[in-house]
Structure prediction request, 76 residues.
Amino acid sequence: MPISIYDSETIPQDRRPELEAAVVAAGRHLSKRFEGWIVATQDRRKFAVRITSSPNVDIIVPFDWNATTVEVTEQV
Prediction:
């Protein structure tokens, strides 16, 4: 089941499609549906991928802005 991306508005438009694709690719091996958000951190120095599913999954993985799509897919 894929990870469905629900928000990526705080990410620069030129990075959004590739980061969304990287997160969705990471979820292809999962047997349950998860929700994902890709957001800039509060200080805007990094971004984070947040993966959730009820009732008890809430994972946040931070990345530097120069992270590659391969790094995002592997770490998510």
Q: What stands out?
A: The mean pLDDT is 91. The beta strands are 3-7, 34-40, 46-53, 57-64. The chain has one domain: 3-75. The longest strand covers residues 46-53.
